[in-house]
Specification:
With 181 residues, the protein is an alpha/beta fold. Helices cover 27% and strands 40% of the residues.
Amino acid sequence: MTAKSRSMEFFSSAVFWGVIVLLIGVSIILKAAFNVSFPFVRILIGIFFIWLGFKVMFGIRFTNSSYSIAFSNGTLNHDAKHDDYSVTFGNATFDFTDVVITDKDQRAKVSTIFGNGTVIVSSLTPVEFEMSTAFGQVQSPGNSANGFGKSRWTSPGGDLSKPHLVIEGNAVFGKLELVTR
């Protein structure tokens, strides 16, 4: 599927047309009931530029897959063949409890943009959690990064000189939390 056809999918999606119909309805009610003009076209253009900005900055596809969630809730399970997971305008649980550490580090990048995410790892797995945030919050047991900043958490007893799980956790206008079980 080409980038152009994916963009066209968004413009033909229920989310896009639902927002358009909702804005038209709100503008009609405001004009009729309160004699308030609603800048429908300006808002529509603003929404388009916000969407386009996220797409350019983060390469985000606004569709759900086994590695990303957009505009909904769900659980994403670890896949050794994939290392990039994201949630945009939604809530996600990233389940990394089945990670098997072999002869090299396992790496994963988890991003939360305008949403909430929870990363679950096994308490038996050695983990290094690299936290980064911009207008958001990233938490791990006993450590956090708020607003703007970076921080790092290592699982208790984790030996970073041996192979381990490395998770890069990013939050932009959202919250991401690491939980051990």
